[in-house]
């Protein structure tokens, strides 16, 4: 029985399935009325700025057709910028302008587009072309992130980002997402980007996953993806952990980027983070989440709460790859229910 | 969390038991058939009374008809008799019809028909116990012969039952001189019954003659005589010739007492022919028929109480939860990807109009053409609403063209596509093309195939006639369905496709 054996093996690994994620985490920890905070990138950004968390600088917002005229004045001071729908999904509708050329704009992929085309694009976003459910949307114009040099060798175009899943503010698993030729410069796993696991304790990359398989090299640059030290890893962890206070959502995927000038920045939050991160890390999420839940229950009994730094320390202590490999008796056995 | 789980468990238990209880009540207490094809035997008893009228005298024909207080219920009863007055009266648990006419001549034929069935009848009270009786007075040699028979019978018997059995055995021994004397030359069942009655009356044992008919497909049956006696608790039936005790189930009591079936005044050469025919009838129709006759609310408050037109709509509607359940299982247990959540159910409903093979073919063609139009429109950079409108109009035109072509080719089936829900098609095209752009061709194809499989499965399940009938007749099973859905709401196991997706993780274990 292939199914039964695989089922048992996955359960032993503590691999989380969609049903469990939805029932035990998303539905339990994420209150529906808080979703707009993460679904709308402008709201996320405003909250983050208010909380003093680093995000790409916002240049301007366009929310009506009439305001499209303001586009010129918004981008006038900048030569490069990003136009994105506030409620877009899967990286759709994002236009990255790298440069200007003779009164026109040049995208990162080198395509030259006219001013009219940008205006049409903005109008499409406003009409809800890229938003979930086709609702009217707003346009966000913001700072273009320049990826850190470190990713040059293991990335193809686009901006690699780092996804950290946090449960009640405790980072439980992290993954570096590298665009490939197939993903068209987008850092979305189901579009063909690579996911590379990250050791939460050190920020060293682990093996990668590509289209549900485990891989070692980037398919376009053929450089090994394993063993790369991400700079300022503690900065990433602290940013991710602080997103709990920012959003109020208990189970989120935090997408961060590493800008070569500004360091770690928060791009967006996701209330239903994908599960492929488990393949990238070669570890199940359930076991880690149970550990955090046990810890929280103990804290609650003691009547304590932990600060962002304490939470990061907890995660780094328990979810490091090296530590994880050793059998540790401090971990309570999972599966309470 | 814990209290929510308990709450959920209780809710599920309540729904399941409610569902089972109501359905069980309907099946076992109200006796509603479980399948539509279930049939019941229907017996029609035809009696044809023929006689030659004596000119110049009034005619009065008295004819016994079965009493309706037995374990059979009458569905229809009719008297066919031209120029005759008909009156039915009851006496001593018998029913008798009287046909009367002032004058008639020549051969006369009267018909009586009773249609009855065994099901759906309430328990009937048994016939009332007979009054104590006096011995029939005898004289001379007959008295001696009777005494000569009774004494050994009394010695060989212990109670009423054995007394009667012994009497029947003796009376059927026609070599016995005493019996011969009492029979007075006759050997028929009626003669024997008369002698038995005589002997038993001397022992003060009550006895009644029961004329029965066999419920078998027969032409020209003559009533079969049985005897019955009361032992203080219940009626016991005996066959006057074989001594067999207990009347078989297929016997219907036509009348009781010593009188003949037909008594005639003003006619001669009378003849009665009894014919029994058996037919089967859909059990549910039968249930409704008997309900009407009994004026009870057996089916009054079920969906069958609705007007027929509404019933037809509900027959479709009540199956939608079944389709939804299919989607639920496919998505959450197996992990099949579909476009939208309930789109497959809507498509499955659309298949009703077109038939499944045609439906899939048309669906595929229209979606494929619609998708190519959609990808062309993509270049024009249209806004969403205008674009959707264009696609919808295109779909309508496409359907019209397909209908026209197939009509010219002589395939009338495809005309049904005109009722194919166009909005569903348009939305499917839109969803599919968005998925195509966002997730690539492979993923959208997977979703499209998944949708097709889900819709086909849902359609096949939703159109099983037996299932439709069952759910429509016993809507409480939907409560059990809801309980299952609730339970699914807290299912945390893997989906089958996840086992493949995370296969890489299971390897190194």
TrEMBL record, chain A:
Domain ATP-grasp: start-end pairs: 45-300
Molecular-function annotations in GO: ATP binding; metal ion binding; ribosomal S6-glutamic acid ligase activity
Pfam families recorded: ATPgrasp_ST
GO terms, biological process: SOS response
InterPro entries: ATP-grasp, ATP_grasp_subdomain_1, RimK-rel_E_lig, RimK-rel_E_lig_ATP-grasp
Protein name: ATP-grasp domain-containing protein
GO cellular component term of the entry, any: cytoplasm
Native species: marine sediment metagenome
UniProtKB/TrEMBL annotation, chain B:
InterPro entries in the record: 7TM_transglut (IPR025840), Transglut_i_TM (IPR025838)
Ribonucleoprotein as UniProt keyword: no
Annotated Inactive transglutaminase fused to 7 transmembrane helices domain residues: 25-184
Residue stretches spanning the membrane: 6-28, 316-336, 356-376, 388-407, 413-432, 467-487
Pfam families: 7TM_transglut, Transglut_i_TM
Domain 7 transmembrane helices usually fused to an inactive transglutaminase: 260-505
Keywords (A to Z) from UniProt: Membrane, Transmembrane, Transmembrane helix
Protein name according to UniProt: 7 transmembrane helices usually fused to an inactive transglutaminase domain-containing protein
Record organism: marine sediment metagenome
């Amino acid at each position: 029985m292939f199914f039964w054996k695989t089922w048992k093996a996955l359960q032993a690994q503590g691999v989380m399935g969609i049903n469990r994620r939805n029932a035990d985490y998303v539905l339990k920890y994420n209150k529906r009325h808080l979703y707009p905070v993460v679904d709308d990138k402008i709201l996320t950004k405003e909250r983050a700025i208010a909380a003093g968390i680093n995000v790409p600088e916002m240049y301007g917002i366009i929310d009506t057709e009439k305001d499209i005229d303001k586009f010129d004045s918004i981008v006038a001071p900048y030569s490069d910028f990003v136009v994105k729908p506030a409620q877009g999904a899967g990286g759709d509708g994002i236009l990255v302008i790298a440069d200007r050329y003779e009164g026109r704009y040049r995208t990162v992929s080198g395509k030259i587009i006219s001013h009219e085309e940008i205006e049409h694009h903005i109008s499409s976003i406003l009409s809800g072309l890229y938003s979930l459910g086709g609702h009217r949307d707003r346009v966000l114009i913001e700072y273009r992130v320049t990826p850190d040099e470190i990713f040059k060798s293991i990335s193809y175009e686009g901006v690699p980002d780092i996804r950290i899943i946090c449960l009640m503010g405790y980072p439980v698993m992290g993954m570096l997402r590298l665009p490939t030729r197939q993903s068209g410069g987008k850092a979305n796993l189901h579009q063909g980007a690579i996911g590379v696991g990250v050791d939460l304790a050190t920020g060293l990359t682990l093996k990668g996953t590509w289209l549900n398989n485990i891989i070692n090299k980037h398919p376009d640059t053929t450089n090994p993806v394993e063993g790369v030290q991400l700079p300022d890893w503690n900065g990433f962890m602290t940013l991710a952990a602080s997103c709990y206070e920012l959003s109020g959502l208990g189970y989120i995927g935090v997408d961060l980027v590493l800008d070569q000038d500004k360091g770690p920045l928060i791009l967006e939050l996701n209330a239903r983070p994908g599960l492929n991160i488990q393949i990238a890390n070669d570890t199940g999420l359930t076991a880690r989440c149970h550990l955090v839940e046990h810890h929280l229950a103990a804290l609650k009994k003691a009547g304590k709460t932990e600060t962002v730094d304490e939470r990061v320390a907890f995660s780094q202590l328990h979810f490091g790859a090296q530590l994880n490999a050793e059998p540790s008796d401090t971990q309570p056995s999972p599966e309470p229910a | 969390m814990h209290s929510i789980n308990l709450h959920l468990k209780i809710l599920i238990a309540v729904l399941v038991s409610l569902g089972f209880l109501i359905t069980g009540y309907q099946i076992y207490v109200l006796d509603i058939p479980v399948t539509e094809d279930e049939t019941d035997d229907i017996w029609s008893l035809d009696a044809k009374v023929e006689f030659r009228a004596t000119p110049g005298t009034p005619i009065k024909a008295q004819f016994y008809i079965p009493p309706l207080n037995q374990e059979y219920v009458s569905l229809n009863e009719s008297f066919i008799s031209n120029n005759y007055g008909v009156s039915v009266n009851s006496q001593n648990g018998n029913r008798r019809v009287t046909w009367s006419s002032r004058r008639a001549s020549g051969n006369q034929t009267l018909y009586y028909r009773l249609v009855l069935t065994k099901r759906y009848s309430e328990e009937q009270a048994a016939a009332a116990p007979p009054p104590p009786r006096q011995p029939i007075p005898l004289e001379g040699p007959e008295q001696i012969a009777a005494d000569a028979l009774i004494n050994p019978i009394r010695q060989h018997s212990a109670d009423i039952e054995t007394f009667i059995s012994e009497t029947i055995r003796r009376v059927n021994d026609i070599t016995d001189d005493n019996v011969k004397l009492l029979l007075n030359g006759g050997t028929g069942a009626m003669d024997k019954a008369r002698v038995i009655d005589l002997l038993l009356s001397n022992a003060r044992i009550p006895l009644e003659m029961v004329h029965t008919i066999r419920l078998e497909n027969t032409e020209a049956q003559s009533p079969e005589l049985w005897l019955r006696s009361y032992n203080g608790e219940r009626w016991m039936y005996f066959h006057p010739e074989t001594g067999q005790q207990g009347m078989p189930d297929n016997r219907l009591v036509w009348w009781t007492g010593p009188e003949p079936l037909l008594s005639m005044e003003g006619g001669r050469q009378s003849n009665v022919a009894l014919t029994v025919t058996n037919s089967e009838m859909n059990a549910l129709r039968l249930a409704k028929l008997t309900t009407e006759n009994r004026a009870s609310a057996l089916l009054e408050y079920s969906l069958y109480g609705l007007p027929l037109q509404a019933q037809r709509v509900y027959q479709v509607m009540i199956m939608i939860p079944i389709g939804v359940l299919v989607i639920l299982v496919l998505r959450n247990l197996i992990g099949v990807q579909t476009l939208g959540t309930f789109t497959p159910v809507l498509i499955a409903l659309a298949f009703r109009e077109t038939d499944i093979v045609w439906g899939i073919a048309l669906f595929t063609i229209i979606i494929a053409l619609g998708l190519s139009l959609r990808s062309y429109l993509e270049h024009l950079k249209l806004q969403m609403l205008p674009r959707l409108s264009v696609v919808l109009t295109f779909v309508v035109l496409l359907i019209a063209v397909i209908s026209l072509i197939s009509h010219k080719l002589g395939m009338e089936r495809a005309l049904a596509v005109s009722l194919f829900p166009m909005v569903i098609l348009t939305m499917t095209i839109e969803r599919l093309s968005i998925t195509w752009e966002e997730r690539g061709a492979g993923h959208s194809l997977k979703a499209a195939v998944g949708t097709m499989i889900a819709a086909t499965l849902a359609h096949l399940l939703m159109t099983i006639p037996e299932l439709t009938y069952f759910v429509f007749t016993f809507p409480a099973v939907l409560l059990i369905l809801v309980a299952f859905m609730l339970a699914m709401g807290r299912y945390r196991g893997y989906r089958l496709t996840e086992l493949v997706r995370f296969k890489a993780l299971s390897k190194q274990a």
